[in-house]
Every structure is written in C-alpha cells, then in structure tokens.
Design goal:
The protein contains 22 helices and 11 strands. It is α+β, with helices and mostly antiparallel strands and 594 residues long. The chain folds into 2 domains: 3-337 and 350-456, no CATH class; 471-591, Cobalt-precorrin-4 Transmethylase, domain 1 (3-Layer(aba) Sandwich). Strand 5 (493-497), helix 21 and strand 6 form a beta-alpha-beta unit. Helix 2 packs antiparallel against helix 5, helix 5 (100-125) runs antiparallel to helix 6 and helix 8 (156-171) packs parallel to helix 10 (200-209).
Length: 594
C-alpha cells in the first residue's frame, strides 16, 4: 500500500468521525455564537465615511433608479474598481434606506467565513483542529476590525475559504468539477482587491498536482463563470476603449522605472504579525482606560505564543509534505516497471493517463499542505520589495491561514501525545489541552475587549490622517439637528462638512425634514440671509476654520454638542441676526478664506 492510499484512508477515517455529522458537534455552534456576537454587537457604531457611504449610495441608487452598475468607484491608483461586490450590497439597499442592513450583510459574510473555516479544517485535519482554528478566527481582534464595516476588501473573507475548499476538492479529494468553482471564487475575489492575484499561484499548483481530475467541459464552465462575473466590468471597458488597462500599464511602467528605488523592509512581516495581535497599531490608538490597554500584557503573551505556533505549523506542514512526497516517490519507483509492463500489454487506460506525471507529484495530503504553505508565504515575500506604501488590508488575503497553521500544529502534537498511554504523554496531552483552552480564552477576551472599546469610544483617532467617524454618532447628530429645527421653528439649517465626514454629511442631509444647505468647511463658511431669521448650523468635531470664522463674523450660540465616538463632539449652533460683521466683497453672505 503506497503513501497516497494510506493518506486517503486516514482522511476517510477523519471524515467518518467528524465530517459526516458536523451539525452534531457542539463546538460548531459555540464558534458561530462567538463570531456572531463579536461581529453583530452594536454594529451601528461601525465606521461610516468616504468609501462606506459611496458604496451604499451606489447600491441604493442602482436599485431605486433601475441602474446596472459597471464599476464600483475609483481605486486609489486611478482605475475603476469592478462592481461585483456592489451587487451583494444592492440586496439590503433594496430593503431599506438604512445602511445598517448593509453593515449586517458584511458581518454575516464574516461569520460565514468563520463557519466555513471550521468546516474546512474539521474536514481535512480533524475536529480538534477545526475547533481551534474556528475559535481563534472567530475572536481574532484585527480580522474583527475588517468584519464590522462596509467595504469591498472586507467581503473577501468567505470567498478565500471557498476558493481553497475548491482547490482541496481536486487536490486532496481527487474529485472532478473543482476548477470552475475555484475560478468562480477567484473571479469574485479579484473584484475585492488586486492583491488577490497572488492566489493564482496556488491555483496553478493545484493544476499541476491534480491534472487527472480535469475535464474538457470544465474549461467551458470556467469561461462561463468568468464571463458572468466580469460581464458588467467588460461593458465598462468596451465603452472606455479599455482605458483602465492603459492606466494599469502606466502604473506598472512607473513601478518598473522606480524599481531601483524600491524599498526592501519587513513591513509585510510586521503586518502579518498584526493579524495575530490585539489591535492594529496603524489605526486608532486606545486610551489608558481601555480594556485593550488593561489586558495588554496577557494579550502580548498570546500574540507571541501564536507567532511561535504559526512558525511551528508552517515548519510542520512543510516537513510533513516533503516527507510524504519523498516516501511517495520511493513507492512510485518501485511500481514503475510493473506498471509500464502492464501498459505495454493492455494499453494505457484513461485512469492511468497521468500515471507517470502523478508519480512525480506529491500525494494528496502533502499537496494540500503545500497549497497552505504557498498561500501563507507568497504574499509577505512578494511585498518585501515595494515601491508603494503597504497597508494592513493588503494582506487580508492570508486570512484565516495563520489560525489554520496553529490548528494543524496543535493537532499534530495531540496525535503524537496520543500514540501511547504512558504517564508522561498523558501529562503532556493534558498540558496541551490546558494551554490550548487558555489561548482560546485569551483570544476571546482580546476580541471582546476590542469590540467593547470600539463601541464605547475608548480610543483616539485625531492623530491619524483623518479621524474616525461612526454611523451612530453622525446619525444622532442629524437627529438632534432635525429635532431642534422643529422645536425652534427654524426655516433652514446649515451643515459644515469636512473631508472625513463629508460624504456622510451629504448622505444624512438628504434625510432631514428641514431645508438644508451643505458646504465645505475646509474652504468657506455659509451664513444665513438676515431676512430669513435665525438658523441652525451643524459643525464636525474638528472644524477649526469654521469656529474662527464664526467668532469673527457671526452671532453664534452653542445649543447642543452631540457626542462623537473617540473624539470631540459635533457642534450645533444657533445663528442669530444681524451678523457681527459683514464679510468684505461678498454679496451672497459667504465668507471664504483668502
């Protein structure tokens, strides 16, 4: 019996023990419960600015105006984003004008990713490994951040797991029909972020490892899947004469010219470590009274332990795959002569068409581990040399890989300790279970602390390029503005919008019951006509120019300060007439700097 058949028997045994009745496993419900609580709790306090507002407005307008989205805004590099993920957001936009439903959809996708991870690891590496990977992923603090607000890169999490489920269907299970599924999930992933292109390497490896599972009709199904997913974007490219390709070509050309000035550093590795930590240091900083700060010592220990487990899991996966591969090659050499003799007498059957090639390829279990290793190693290594800044979401494509590696390492330790019942190994196995439970509890504490700190505003975002603004705070400020306008019988309200809150200010202004004027607070101040009587003005938390112009020109009295999570409050001012001073050379009552 060769290594491949033994591996299949072991896999079949695990399938019988866990996969066949996964719905009877109590830990699966616990994982879903933890993931759901951390992703749905106070979802109305999630980030709502810029991209979030734009995505929801595009989905809302497409539904209510009968439009076919062919792009999803513009990427930071200048080309149009494909609209694939926008179609998912059109469902909640069709049900309600409230963006909270879209936030719930995003969180639902994240919970689905956690559950799929549990099923994936349980199927191929056992129930213990599935529980560890599922709980670590369910409560991981940094992936939690990207599970609680509207954004197309945040939607990639379940499709990454589905993509590798499709690859394992062909490489490990040796079943047909996996290629169209893999290309379907990859096509959807490509519409979330361009870093997903790195997943083409595991796909190519799967084609090499399992060529006998491919059928000619798979090629047709694959082309159909790609056409369906990219059809709207192809319409856009046809209309623009493939203008985005020219932009991408110019970007690549620029990067090639700047190749000599590329930076080689450990930024990608540090970002990889960020996904194992208690928070993202590149985002908001937590205050001294935050739970993250109070539990910083045990959470830093947990991050260190997880790092060593990830490295050990990677080494274990590589060592096992290479060991099984070498053993398979030895077995293949022993039966090659017999196989060639039978083929010359009886002809080559269809099932043995790839026999010689498969003899050189790793066995199914080893091939699966190699796919996981390539998935985790390629993105950080490719980004070691870069000419553009690297951000945390560039490595979202590796999630939930680190937690799977930790689970594989702990599962192999558990199997090794379970080979005999001597006292030493029993003690070691008990210690392993205790350490694992402690790790999982600390991970849940870290994830819960992050969510509670976020929803209660125990952070400070003023030091960032633009401060954090959440949906609930902005909605509450506009509700107060509308209430005060009705109470005081004000005929018009004014809203000052700065860069961080601009899109959200325009969005909520459309829901007011009072006539409204919105202006850019970074450029000017709009004052009411004295003949119209008093008015109300809503200002963002850090509108220094607006406050300066108000003190100089207007008779303004603060009437309300709606709170803002993690920052200064909004301001609602009553503007009375006449003004203190008429702005020079302004006939429309607009005071502009310079």
């Amino acid at each position: 019996m060769n290594t491949s058949s033994r591996t299949k028997q072991r896999s079949a045994g695990k399938d019988d023990a866990s996969k066949g009745a996964w719905y009877r496993n109590w830990e699966g419900y616990l994982i879903v419960l933890v993931a759901s609580f951390l992703r749905f709790y106070r979802i109305d306090t999630s980030q709502f600015e810029g991209d979030q507002v734009q995505i929801f407005r595009l989905a809302h307008d497409a539904v209510h105006h009968g439009l076919l989205p062919v792009t999803n805004g513009t990427a930071s590099l200048g080309f149009a984003n494909p609209p694939g993920l926008l179609y998912f957001y059109m469902l909640p936009a069709a049900l309600s004008d409230n963006p909270v439903l879209a936030m719930l959809l995003n969180s639902f996708f994240a919970v689905t990713a956690v559950f799929l991870t549990y099923l994936f690891v349980t199927r191929y590496y056992g129930r213990f490994a599935g529980a560890v990977a599922g709980l670590l992923y369910a409560a991981a603090p940094v992936p939690l951040i990207y599970s609680r607000f509207i954004w197309q890169p945040n939607m990639m999490q379940p499709f990454v797991v589905l993509f590798f489920l499709a690859l394992f269907r062909g490489v490990v299970d040796r079943r047909t029909g996996w290629l169209p599924l893999a290309l379907l999930w990859l096509a959807i992933l490509l519409q979330t972020h361009l870093t997903v292109l790195l997943l083409v390497i595991p796909l190519f490896m799967a084609l090499l490892f399992a060529p006998e599972t491919l059928r000619w009709r798979d090629l047709g199904y694959s082309c159909l899947a790609l056409l369906v997913v990219f059809f709207p974007y192809l319409l856009w490219e046809l209309v623009t004469n493939f203008g985005d390709l020219a932009i991408i070509h110019s970007i690549l050309l620029t990067q090639t010219c700047q190749h000599a000035n590329a930076c080689i550093d450990n930024t990608s590795w540090n970002i990889y470590l960020t996904f194992l930590g208690s928070h993202d240091p590149h985002q908001v900083s937590f205050t001294s009274n935050s739970l993250i700060h109070r539990f910083s010592t045990p959470l830093s220990w947990l991050a260190t332990v997880l790092l060593y487990c990830v490295i050990a899991g990677l080494v274990t996966a590589l060592a096992l795959s290479l060991y099984w591969w070498r053993k398979s090659l030895r077995t293949a050499r022993g039966i090659q002569v017999v196989g060639d003799g039978q083929a010359s007498e009886m002809g080559v059957p269809k099932a043995a068409r790839w026999r010689r090639w498969l003899g050189l390829m790793p066995p199914p279990a080893a091939a699966g581990l190699l796919l996981l290793c390539a998935w985790q190693l390629l993105p950080p290594l490719v980004m070691v040399r870069h000419t553009l800044p690297i951000f945390t979401h560039y490595l979202l494509v590796i999630i939930p890989g680190p937690f799977i590696l930790v689970a594989i390492f702990l599962e192999r330790l558990r199997e090794w300790f379970s080979r005999s019942e001597d006292t030493l190994r029993l003690l070691a196995r008990g210690l392993l279970y205790s350490v694992t439970v402690l790790m999982l509890l600390l991970q849940i504490v870290g994830g819960t602390a992050l969510v509670l700190d976020d929803v209660r505003g125990r952070f400070n975002s003023k030091g960032l390029d633009f401060y954090f603004s959440d949906f609930h705070s902005i909605q509450n400020a506009f509700s107060e503005l509308d209430r005060l306008a009705k109470q005081r019988h004000v005929s018009r309200v004014y809203v000052a919008a700065d860069f961080p809150t601009g899109q959200a200010m325009y969005f909520f202004s459309g829901q007011l019951h009072t006539p409204v004027t919105v202006f850019d607070s970074d450029r000017c101040l709009v004052l009411p006509n004295p003949a119209d009587g008093p008015a109300l003005l809503l200002t963002p938390p850090y509108a220094d120019l607006t406050y300066t112009l108000l003190n100089h020109y207007a008779s303004a009295r603060s009437v309300e300060q709606p709170p803002m999570l993690g920052g200064n409050p909004f301001g609602i001012f009553e503007l009375s007439t006449p003004m203190k001073k008429v702005p020079p050379q302004v006939s429309l009552l607009m005071a502009c700097p310079g």
